[in-house]
Amino acid sequence: MILSVTGHRPKRLGGFSKAAQSRLIAFANRCLLRYDTEVEGIVGCALGWDQAMAQAFLDQGHILHCAIPFEGFNAAWSLEQRKALDKLLDRALTVHTVSHDVDSEYQAVPALMQRNKYMVDISNKVLALYD
Predict the structure, then answer these.
(1) Of 102, 101, 93, 96, which is closest to residue 116 (Cα–Cα)?
(2) What's the pTM?
(3) Virtual CA dihedral for 13, 26, 56, 118, nearest 10 degrees?
(4) Nearest-angstrom CA–CA distance, 28 and 31
(5) What does the radius of gyration of the chain's CA atoms come to, in whole angstroms?
(6) pLDDT, tens digit (0-9, with 9 covering 90-100), for 86-115
(7) Cα separation, 26 vs 56, whole angstroms
(8) Angle at Cα 50 formed by Cα 29 and Cα 57, nearest 5°?
(9) Which three-class secondary structure string do you get for 25-88?
(10) CA nearest 55: which of 100, 89, 81?
C-alpha cells in the first residue's frame, strides 16, 4: 500500500521546539502502527506533519518517497530546517521534483497543488492531520 500524508505545519501542531517535534514524531509513529500491511510512504516534505511522518516511515523500516514541489521551495527555512530535510531526502528511496518551472511566488502555489495531485494520484490512501 502506498500511503501519502499531509497535514498542518508546526505553528498549528505545538510549535517549532525540539520537544514539540519529538511529540509529533512519536504521534506519527503511533499512527503508522495502525497499518498492518507493508506500507510505502510518500510525503510532500513540508515542515510539521509531513516530516514527522517521513521520520516515522524510516523509524519503522518502511520505504519513503519524497515529492518536492520545486527546487528551492524551502529557501525561507532556517539552515537547521533545511539540513533536517536534506537528511530525510538522503534516506528516501526516491525524490521526485514535481515542477521545474517556478520562477516567482505566483508559480509556487500551482506547483504546490501539482505536488499534492501527484501524491494523491499515486497513493492508495491519504493520512491527513489537521486541527
Answers:
(1) 96
(2) 0.92
(3) -20
(4) 5
(5) 14
(6) 999 999 999 999 988 777 676 888 899 999
(7) 8
(8) 40
(9) HHHHHHHHCCCCCCCEEEECCCCCHHHHHHHHHHHCCCEEEEEECCCCCCCCCCHHHHHHHHHH
(10) 89
Q: What region, left, alpha or beta, does residue 17 occupy, with left being phi > 0 and alpha being psi -120 to 50 degrees?
A: beta
Whether the Cβ atoms of residue 108 and residue 102 lie closer than 8 Å to each other: yes
Mode of pairing for the β-strands spanning 40-43 and 63-68: parallel
Quick one: 79 exposed, middle or buried, by C-beta within 10 A (0-12, 13-18, 19+)? exposed
Q: Determine the Cα–Cα distance for residues 105 and 96; give it in Å rounded to an integer.
A: 20
Residue carrying the nine cell digits 530535510 = 85
53 grid coordinates? 511522518
- Which of 75-79's residues contact partners 24+ apart within 8 Å by CB, and which partners? 77/47
From residue 81, how far is each of 1, 10, 78, 84 by CA, in Å?
A: 29, 12, 5, 5
Least confident range of 33-37, 91-95, 106-110, 119-123: 106-110
